[in-house]
């Protein structure tokens, strides 16, 4: 009795936990999230639940002309494969992906748990590239600024208030409140047209400085672009400046470029007087642009990855993506790091590895020693846990063979129709009620116990489906029906055996025990062979890519395991407890027919 | 009841049920693959605001125009996404016109998009599922062989269980080939799943009967085998009838009161439950007896 009571308490606890799991629509712990606004928070497939209906169009364009390029059937098929992989491993539910016409893709996703995330996962091309970033770049002449663009070149001092010393009025000079420092500068007057050209150059230079400062704040090194100015007059004057040392005098076509004031190793200090001397009377000016860095494609990309998985940075704990290269990738990455390291040793220039995703830089680490083991990590300033998870997924599933554009987005109803499904659910309930009624009427008390066990079974199965989670589709429902059938069958087997034992004149308790023991081999073999079937179906469909069969196998296996528990543990414990109560003396309540005779026989 | 004595009648009945189905399977077109496997045409239809067409009405209208094997998804606002078998220009125009007239006359131009659409499930899936089932059958054979190792000739039980499984699958597929010919029913993913379910049920049911034989063979070691089998069937028939009865009740409730979209699926399950229960008694067990008697050529039931 004690033992039975303990088992009953455990069963009650399990039912309570499962009931709570089903009762709470949405379960959320830090990283664990289950449920949603579906019935009982179960995750349902598209045949049972509506969702989003997304239509994408291939956006393959010629890089030069921007003209659309026709996509091939193969490209569309590999597009489907990649997106399928991405969605299937993301937990967004089982999608339906179909090619529409020649160059469009229909994607239907069950439920709308996170449409934004779904769209990012589907649409990102995820082209990961590793580039050699050189920080010593030769300057390139800006030939499009021709001598005609320049009207005059002079050297002058510019005061901190933006006024040129040679153009100060007597009032300015007498203004005793302003004793301002001044800087030696080169003053270039452009033609209207020339000033426009030079403005673009100056703008790009200042953008480059802003980027560089941004990078510095993140702790990265990103040298800014430099403008190399060479003036040939009496003597050659050559120096380089950053974007913040170039100023346009307001409302004029005049630019003031600071002369080097000491920090510039290449040109040293140049005073205004020296510059004037060098300029002479008819100087000629030439501009060159020295990029701060240049990225060289070495043919190493996400295609060379073997593995990508989310992890945490050992130092900062920040979410990162760890990657492992395949053989080719390991070799290329090894060469890259060796080259960079060697150059660093020879010239002192600390080149970087630029890691780019879809053309955007994620991180550009320096190399402290050659890495030949073929592993690396990727960090990003905006990396969150979710982003890192998705990124790993994108990298592993491969990049999209062609870029795509979302052209239509709508909500869609379940394939089997919400109205039709509602009717089916009600009909299923009626069917189940009839089964419970039949069992109770035919098998009396044991039937009632079996009915209770069956309800407990249903609660546990649904809770397990919700927690794992198992996406329920029609194939899952079919598997569930089969496993319910097997649960009912197990109970019926037990009762038939029990009835035999009672007829043979055993006591209630021993009839129950022997009934269960006799029925066990049949239940075991039936269930084990079903589990073997599930395992083989699962393994095979995994190899061959038949997802629907796989879903069926998983649901059936879960159902069968729980149905064994329900028949053997739940029914048996309830029956044993009942056998110890006064009810058990009424044998006719325990067997379908002929119970009266047995009772009579016993009393006589 | 003498079940064993009627075994050749049982075999004859099975043969009579299987043969037409197999004939229909062999002669073209055999099973008709549904749009899940073949792809077809898809269209988006937008009816006028005031029409309030339901998904069910849409499905019925498609059925009436001879496109019962279509899927309909409501996009909201009287708009539907429909997948049908492949339509040429003419068939499309007449279908769209027909649907408009019967559902929402005066809607103007309802067709918003019309495309060829690729299969949802690759056609190989059916073949793959077939191989998977075959592999599962081999697994079941070995397990049953092992589980019945205490009785004489255990591998016969394994083979008989597989025979019953194939018997049930052939009947279900055969009946569907006939329905395909007569009612234009198509094989879709639902059919595939229903078939897997039937197979699972069939094996389970066979093993229950076999379990009783296993028990009785050990208890009544001196009795002739056919008698033991007969006794075992008699002892399990109550349970067989009750189990299949509960399943049939549930399925019938679903067929009669449930939605139309899963009716075909349920009909397959219904046939499967009947056939699966029948085959355990009338095929699997009788194969054991016949094998024991080594007399397939014996005249009907004379000796048993």
How would you sum up this structure, described in words?
The complex is a heterodimer of chains A (604) and B (304). Chain A is an alpha+beta fold and 604 residues long. Chain A folds into 4 domains: 2-27 and 417-603, Up-down Bundle (Multidrug efflux transporter AcrB transmembrane fold); 51-125 and 403-412, Alpha-Beta Plaits (2-Layer Sandwich), CATH 3.30.70; 140-292, no CATH class; 295-396, 2-Layer Sandwich (Gyrase A, domain 2), CATH 3.30.1360. Chain A has 13 helices and 21 strands. Chain A has helices at 2-23, 73-88, 115-123, 170-174, 192-218, 272-279, 327-347, 385-397, 418-467, 474-503, 508-544, 547-579, 595-603, and strands at 26-29, 32-35, 51-58, 96-100, 104-110, 128-134, 140-141, 150-159, 182-190, 226-232, 236-241, 246-248, 254-258, 284-290, 294-301, 305-312, 319-325, 352-357, 360-363, 375-378, 404-412. In chain A, the strands form 6 sheets. Chain A has a 4-stranded antiparallel β-sheet with strand order 4-5-3-21, with helices on one face. In chain A, strands 15-6-18-19 form a 4-stranded antiparallel β-sheet, with helices on one face. In chain A, helix 9 crosses helix 10. Chain A is elongated and about 130 Å long. Chain A starts with a helix and ends with a helix. With 304 residues, chain B is α+β, with helices and mostly antiparallel strands. Chain B has 2 domains: 4-33 and 122-293, Up-down Bundle (Multidrug efflux transporter AcrB transmembrane fold), CATH 1.20.1640.10; 40-117, Alpha-Beta Plaits (2-Layer Sandwich), CATH 3.30.70. Chain B is built from 9 helices and 4 strands. A 4-stranded antiparallel β-sheet of chain B has the order 2-3-1-4, with helices on one face. In chain B, a hairpin with a 2-residue loop joins strand 2 (71-76) and strand 3 (79-84). In chain B, helix 3 (55-64) crosses helix 4 (89-103), helix 5 (124-147) runs antiparallel to helix 6 and helix 7 (189-219) packs parallel to helix 9. The model of chain B is unreliable at 297-304 (pLDDT under 50). Classes of the chains: A alpha+beta (604), B alpha+beta (304). Chains A and B meet through strand 4, strand 5, strand 21, helix 9 and helix 10 of A and helix 3, strand 2, strand 4, helix 5 and helix 7 of B.
